[in-house]
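Form 12-C: Joint structure prediction
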Amino acid sequence: MDSPAVEIIDLVKRYGPTTAIDGLSLRAARGAVTAILGPNGAGKTSTIEICEGFRRADGGTVSVLGLDPSRPELRPRVGVMLQAGGVPPAMRCGEWLRLVARFHARPLDPEALLDRLGLVEHARTPYRRLSGGQQQRVSLAAAVIGRPELVFLDEPTAGLDPQARHACWDLVGELRAAGVSVVLTTHHMDEAEKLSDHVVIIDRGTVVAEGTPAALTGAERQLRFRARPALTLDELLNALPAGSSAKESPAGHYIIEGQVGPELLATVTAWCAAEGVTADDLSIERRTLEDVFLELTGRELR
Amino acid sequence: MTTANDRPAGTALDLTPAPGAAPLPRMVLAQAGAEIRAMLRNGEQLLLTMIIPVLLLVGFSAAPLVNVGDGPRVDFMAPGVLALAVMSTAFTGQAIATGFERRYGVLKRLGATPLSRGGLMLAKTLAVIAVEAVQVVIIIGVALALGWRPGGSPLAALVLLLLGTAAFSGLGLLMAGTLRAEATLAGANLVYLLMLGCGGVVFPVSTFPDAMERVLELLPISALTGGLRSVLADGAGPPVAAMTVLAAWAAVSLLAASRTFRWE
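Section 2 - Result
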């Protein structure tokens, strides 16, 4: 039980001339929720599919529950939710879950799982006739039905309506509470922040930052407001305490970072008064993972 | 965060890890059952595996559309239609179904379950044989009703049917594992029609020119129809040549399929 849920060291994956994963290393602890966060094409799915044993690495080492991902004894211990598909379109979703349950020694009751995920009335509906959100829930159910130690979820909430997304988040929380290790990919930072113990931000096939959501976003807070675009910020920067910063991003949206407190707030409002500027939607916020990502890569997450 | 009250039905699940694979026979039977249900539920598959063979059997036995030589026409037709039934299930149906399973990620997803690939292939084979058993019962029933009086060794006929199943399964899986699903769909239907027309199912191979006849006799469908006919209609002993042709097709196609099969 000492080995981590997943340990990846210097992973390399190439598709022809393209290097999709370029020296990626990460570690997902047992019993924790680890989110792999990054924009489309960052290498999230390649990474998770190598861990699931679907693809082979071109370099580096990957170990899942202390074993090589291709080892058959991992199959009952690991639950998998693919990004899309994986279910015969004509099969009724209840039938699919009962089939997958039959592959396991001590599965969850398929009917209880259908009930829990709000799919009871669709149990006899062919998979292809379900909505996107319902299909995602069927795939999620199939990933957990065998009572695995470790679950891989590839973009579990992509295309879900808010209600279905919350149902998914609840289940991930319950998995964690039950001691199941969860590794998921997402490009929603709110999802990574809410769900995970550990976030690994990847871009262009390599890790750009990792840590707890709190450590990544830092204790630093920021003051934001809206005003007319292209204000000259020099006066404000002079007035602010050393170590503060002020920028306009995007046009008309101003972000002040530093020791955000009453003093800084007073400085900013005084400057606004002197400039004849009305600051709208003035708010004090924590940095988001999106800000962290933008800072590290110079690119938007989505 | 939502509270327990927001959950769809509030059922508590024991998610505590308790992993373990089911015994292999249980997994294989579960998968085979799912495959059989899928085949029997699919309208196009039923048309191919049940309706067309029975219509051909009835139609060509009743009407003198083809010169099949001496003896009751049903004696010629029944073995050919049995061979066609094997081809439609083991080759055409299996190729199309497996091709689309690959396309929809079903084979990939099943690869992440405790059911091994060997177990999946065993399940597919069992499902094909089960559907063939239903086909054989129906075809024999209809043929007997049409006055068929089969002779020969049932065991030799069974060996031919199994060798034919192996050869056609190998060819079907070879297509399904390498081509796009749409190409498999088109190709498997085209091959079905060509083999139906040229493989001695309803038109005797001897109606073709000699040189062509010799080549056509090497097709798996001709070997199966010819072999079944020599046993069931003529009461001959085990047709070694036909069995050898089928065994060779089975060996080559299954080996090629296992080497080239792509699971996604």
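Section 3 - Comments
Chain B has ten helices and no strands. Chain B has one domain: 23-260.
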